[in-house]
């Protein structure tokens, strides 16, 4: 079952220091993959935060990815339901996602990030304009904590069609390097993907609100954070 730590430092809730301030962390079960040898793409948690310009994301997996680095990372975002690409289950659906991975998102997505950490490493950010996917930005993941299984990204809000105050639905997935590979682990669910040759589906039922100002730890900052509703929450579609 998915758990989310509310980003307010009280006795009962945990706060997470992150590049963009205090972030929202979403926790995934360990071992919810069909093959234990794939621990490098077994998601443990993901943390979002932001400032006025950028969205910051860190994903932790269950292995040293400095050594085992072939896994790919996908981020699906739905912030404008009327625009989103309503993808089918098959990876060859042209509106599925720009990387042609076998991940269905019946709710529709209008922004996508695909990243690799092997070779020269990089990430590509896209938005959907109603008929086509447009690449808006490229970047480099932060691999300084890769030996601990943590990969981080700085993604401009503009490249994802986002602004301060926006609330978006999202999911994070890990996959392989081939067209039609499914999501092997999805942050949003503990259901186990049966294998490489099967379809996978994201319900896009996690949310994050882009804070209108960078939260500052302390009484005043935490009160402002609570008012912004920064903490993500799980919603059913």
What does this structure look like?
The chain is mainly beta and 237 residues long. It has one domain: Immunoglobulin-like (Sandwich), CATH 2.60.40. The chain is 4% helix and 35% strand. The protein has 1 helix and 15 strands, in the order βββββββββββββββα. Strands 6, 8, 9, 10, 12, 13 and 15 form a 7-stranded antiparallel β-sheet that branches. Strands 1, 2, 3, 4, 5 and 11 form a 6-stranded antiparallel β-sheet that branches. It has a two-stranded parallel sheet with strand order 7-14. It is globular, with a radius of gyration of 17 Å.
Secondary structure elements and their pairing?
Layout: E1 3-5, E2 16-18, E3 21-27, E4 43-50, E5 54-61, E6 72-78, E7 103-104, E8 111-116, E9 122-128, E10 133-139, E11 150-156, E12 167-175, E13 185-186, E14 200-201, E15 206-209, H1 219-228
Parallel strand pairs: 7-14
Antiparallel strand pairs: 1-3, 2-3, 3-4, 4-5, 5-11, 6-8, 6-12, 8-9, 9-10, 12-13, 12-15
């Amino acid at each position: 079952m998915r758990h989310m730590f509310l980003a307010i430092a009280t006795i009962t809730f945990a706060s997470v220091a992150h590049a963009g301030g205090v972030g929202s962390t979403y926790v995934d079960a360990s071992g919810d993959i069909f093959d234990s040898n794939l621990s490098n793409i077994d998601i443990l948690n993901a943390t979002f935060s932001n400032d006025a310009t950028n969205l910051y994301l860190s994903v932790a997996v269950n292995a040293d990815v400095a050594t085992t680095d072939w896994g790919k990372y996908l981020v699906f975002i739905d912030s404008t339901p009327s625009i989103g690409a309503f993808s089918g289950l098959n990876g060859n659906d042209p509106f599925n996602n720009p990387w042609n991975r076998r991940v269905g998102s019946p709710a529709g997505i209008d922004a996508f990030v695909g990243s690799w950490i092997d070779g020269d490493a990089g990430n590509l950010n896209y938005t959907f304009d109603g008929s086509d996917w447009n690449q808006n930005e490229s970047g480099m993941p932060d691999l300084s904590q890769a030996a601990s299984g943590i990969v981080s990204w700085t993604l401009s809000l503009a490249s994802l069609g986002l602004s301060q105050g926006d609330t978006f639905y999202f999911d994070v997935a890990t996959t392989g390097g081939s067209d039609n590979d499914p999501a092997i682990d999805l942050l949003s669910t503990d259901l186990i993907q049966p294998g490489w040759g099967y379809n996978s589906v994201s319900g896009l039922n996690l949310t994050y609100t882009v804070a209108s100002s960078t939260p500052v730890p302390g009484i005043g900052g935490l009160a402002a954070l609570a008012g912004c509703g920064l903490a993500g929450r799980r919603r059913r579609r």
